[in-house]
Amino acid sequence: MRVSLENLKDRAGWEKAGVRLPAFDISAMKQKTEEAPMWVHFGAGNIFRAFIAVLQQRLLDAGLSDRGIIAADTFDVDNIRMIYGGYDNLTLSVTLNADATIDKEIVASVSEAVVAQPGEQADYARLLRAFAAPSLQMISFTITEKGYALRQIDGNYQKVVEEDLKNGPEKARHAMTIVTALLYHRYQNGKLPLAVVSMDNCSHNGEKLQSSILEVAKAWQVNGFVPKDFVKWLSDESQVSFPWSMIDKITPRPAPEVQRMLEEAGIEAVAPLETSRGTFVAPFVNAEKAQYLVVEDKFPNGRPPLEKAGVYFTDRETVNKTERMKVTTCLNPLHTALAVYGCLLGYTLIREEMKDEDLVKLIRRLGYQEGLPVVTDPGILSPKAFIDEVVEERLPNPFMPDAPQRIATDTSQKVGIRFGETIKSYLAENRSMDQLVALPLAIAGWLRYLLGVDDAGNAMPLSGDPLLEELRAMLSGIELGKPETCGDKLKPILSNPMIFGSDLTRCELGERITGYFLEEIQGPGAVRETLKKTLTD
Ligand SMILES: NC(=O)c1ccc[n+]([C@@H]2O[C@H](COP(=O)([O-])OP(=O)(O)OC[C@H]3O[C@@H](n4cnc5c(N)ncnc54)[C@H](O)[C@@H]3O)[C@@H](O)[C@H]2O)c1
Ligand SMILES: O=P(O)(O)OC[C@@H](O)[C@@H](O)[C@H](O)[C@H](O)CO
Q1: pLDDT in tens, 422-449
Q2: Do 1 and 13 touch, CB atoms closer than 8 A?
Q3: Which pLDDT does position 268 carry in this prediction?
Q4: Which of 10, 110, 233, 519 has the highest count of CB atoms within 10 angstroms of its CB?
């Protein structure tokens, strides 16, 4: 059985294979969405398909909505053409339960999948129509943290952004300029209200998205492409809101072991692939069961009743507290520490790392001892219960195929949030930095990782990162076994506020990180030695 609309007619066959099917009329949903779309999502990758699209499917199944989501990608044409296009926009969603059972479901809530680039004329025309529709309530994003950045490490605009600002809305190519161009189209078609919702793992994600979009709009105004009133409209949150959100569901890349399970159940053509833009995709997605989505309830044109699908809607302050709890303390910093040390120590699975005493000590200290004291209880989720679930159940889940190499992707874009926010809190609360051991160790581990040599002394492939070349150039010349080659080479990285959110060389942490790094490059085995020596309690 292959995932396709035609094959869905064989309901008995799918049910025999243990696959839950959509309980709504897919063609009626497509027609209604075509006429009056409500939701466009940018960044149609794995978390979107495993989580966000499933939320809308729950509403469709329950008769609480009759519309689907238009999936858009500004970045990855292959994902749209090969994965969505190749499988009628359907996704086989696999939930990997901690008790070895799996749940399988066909998700059909994506009505259309389009390439969001002005050069792709038919697709772009569809998006323009959607943006002009009074029915459109929200656009949302999971485009990775780097998708929002307009500037490069030296503070100057990226080349593509510089050109887009010069060339105006019709020739936009960067995610932020394309979305601003589409918003301009909505402005020109009646200044209709809209919610613009980031669902990426960045602190203050709504603010980050708003500030990039406003920066583009202002530059276009200065360059004569848009009127000042467009910037005013975009700045008025009663018209265009940028709700903040916290999203959580560990969604590994599609894994060969899950592919095998599906094939054993008689489902064909499910092989994962890496697109030319580096997205790891398959007609199926695999994820854990646990999931949390907390969204600021600010939707000027209304919204789907997603609370009926388990989404928490609340105020900005509560979202901020849950997001800080998850991204800066209870989950993502632990993930990043496991990512870089996992790669260095030769692991390919997070669940295996959770059997390593030194790594468990590292993340427990990082989360419980160093992070939790500066976290405010958001009220709707308990930080202690949350981190307990992460450390005791989610990370060790014996059926999750998550890899440190996935999580190590784009680390330069994440360390400022995942570690920098805790550092800022320590400084703001005048807390002693002596307490911070695992946190500087995690940063030292990242710098050690960037050398591209594992703890056994072998060359190690590094995951994609927009700053990889620049960072490696800064570290070039540092050799394992020769700490004297380090010199002052860490300083430009540690002092860069674009990376860490502040200059770490201005506090004692800069020196501590450098000290750990020097220990870790003493020779093969030094990473393990440093962990053992440093994490004594
Ligand atoms: N996977 C998870 O466990 C998880 C959980 C919570 C939150 N998230 C958030 O979602 C993001 C995406 O995760 P995913 O698992 O879907 O990743 P993915 O690699 O499967 O998909 C990434 C998507 O972002 C797009 N993209 C990548 N770089 C871009 C750029 N520079 N500009 C515009 N679009 C770009 C890709 O085309 C793709 O559609 C993460 O970075 C994170 O912020 C992920
Ligand atoms: O998705 P990223 O790249 O921000 O970070 C990698 C992982 O830490 C992340 O995807 C987690 O799995 C996720 O945040 C869990 O909710």
Answers
A1: 999 999 999 999 999 999 999 999 999 9
A2: yes
A3: 87
A4: 110
Give the alpha-carbon dihedral of 265, 269, 270, 276, to 10 degrees: 170
| Domain end point (choices 314, 331, 360) | 314
146 and 75 in a single domain? The answer is yes
Within this chain, do residues 329 and 239 fall inside the same structural domain, yes or no? no
Q: Ligand 1 centroid to 413 CA: how many Å?
A: 13
AA letter at 189: N
User: What is the per-residue DSSP string for 268-309?
Assistant: -----EE-TTS-EE-SEEEE-S--EEEEE---TT----GGGG
The H-or-E segment that residue 125 falls in is helix 121-132
Q: Is residue 1 part of a domain?
A: no
Question: How far apart are the C-alpha atoms of 59 and 304, rounded to whole Å?
Answer: 8
Q: How confident is the model at residue 101 (pLDDT cuts 50, 70, 90)?
A: confident
* Span 357-372, pLDDT tens digits: 999 999 999 999 999 9
Residues 300 and 326 in one domain: no
Give the integer Cα–Cα distance in Å for 119 and 130. 17
- Find the distance separating the first CA and the last CA of the chain, reported in whole Å: 54
Among 42, 47, 110, the mutation site with the greatest number of ligand 1 atoms within 8 A of its Cβ is: 47
Residues with C-beta less than 6 Å from any ligand 2 atom: 144-145, 201, 248-250, 331-332, 335, 407, 409-410, 414
Residue 43 Cα to ligand 1 middle (Å): 6
Phi, psi of 385, deg, nearest 5: -65, -35
Kindly report, residue by residue over 331-349, the tens digit of the pLDDT. 999 999 999 999 999 999 9
Please state the domain count of the chain: 2
